[in-house]
Amino acid sequence: MSQEHGEKSIAVIGGSDLRLGFKLAGVQKTFGKENYEQKIQDLIDREDIGILITEKKDLNLLSKRIRKNVESSVNPVVVSLSEDAESERLQEKIKKAIGADITG
Fold this sequence. Notes:
This protein has 104 residues and is an alpha/beta fold. The chain has helices at residues 16-24, 36-45, 56-59, 64-72, 87-98, and strands spanning 9-13, 29-31, 49-55, 77-81. The protein has one domain (4-98): Rossmann fold (3-Layer(aba) Sandwich).
């Protein structure tokens, strides 16, 4: 996504495999898990991020306060991926983030 006209970006924070997959898909803002709790809070506070993607197993390591911030975040919407992620829930989060159902 370009930053023209107030458009927001997708950001990914996670392990190298997750970051590589999203980099190959064209996501430019990818971050490793070093200082994860501080980094995820910083990304939530950024105005240029519309969707923040991370791994569910990492969210479980956050303090209660930060986890509450992550779970209640609407802008950006935080999408946590897991091996057994439900596609319907992901579709709902994407719809909430962009205001349209792009999944058909």
